[in-house]
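Narrative of activities, Objective 1.

The group set out to show that a structural description can be obtained from nothing but a protein's sequence at a throughput compatible with the screening campaign. Below is one input-output pair from the validation batch, recorded exactly as produced.
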Amino acid sequence: MLQIFIIVVLFLSLTLKIDFRSDDAFISFRYADNFASGKGLVYNDGERIEGYTNFLWVMIMSAFSKYEIDLLTAARIISLLSAIAIIVLTYLISAFVFGLKGPVSLLSAYLVALNPGFVLWSFSGMETLFFSLFVLLGLLCILLYIENGRSILLYISAILFAVASLTRPEGVLFFVTSFLFVLIFNRQDSYEKFFNRFKKLLIPSLLFAGIYLYYFLWRYDYYGQLLPNTLYAKTGFEDQQLKGFYYCFKFVRESMAGGFLLIFPLTLLGRIFADAKIRFIFYVLAVYCTYLIYIGGDNLLVQRFFVPVVAFIFTLVSLGVAKVISGMKTETMVKILTQKQDKY
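Output recorded for this entry:
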């Protein structure tokens, strides 16, 4: 684990040196301060407008506010711990879920730790990394379920996705995407197997729905709107989907070496039909990118919305690199054997 420690130290040196703080974080802090002081979940006293999209984060910050702890410091510490956990989990996914060995098993963690968005938002004071951690944990449970079929993993993932959904609305998308994959796209096509999967998913789905529905009904009663005010303010503009395409293009250009790293996931496309875990990762990324295109991304720095999926993106890069290296070794062995045969 020395190599992971070095990667974490490298990440911390970068994010602490940049020392970025987001102005938007202080919106959440104000809601937290007002809630802690008994004014309610409001930005201005007496005005019930939902100007945040991170309910659980605001609640956590309000607990620190109650004890007069500096909110920016508390938010940064939680974010850094979440970021470190994501780096370690990314390595574990490559090494133990997909069985990569040697330096290539560390590549995904290294790329995550150096990703501009990951580095920048880890010290911003916002909920991005806390949310990303619970999304990754939920997705990891689904990966493990695909591998060994243990039903307890569905219950754990439902709870993790519920925590993510209370932190940001996109958590619901990750839950629906993941459970639909298990139900429909796991390549077990008989009706009996489909019905068995449906029964396995039913109670975990109700568990998630019960948690989230209780919160949703409360916030609708409190604010009187189906969606947060920020979503109404940031969507519905002209050329929104075009902006979403450009948002995804910028991520590839700025976070994947000008698009060069995209080559390696593309080498895995042939394994989609044979490997359910790789199929799941591609499926999640395709659905999420479609969502980002639909909403037009956001206007904040270095494609913040991609941070929750960078672990999966760079896991595919590592798997692609491993495949290319394996192919090169195979070609080398073939040439050596051919040369030996020619001598005889």
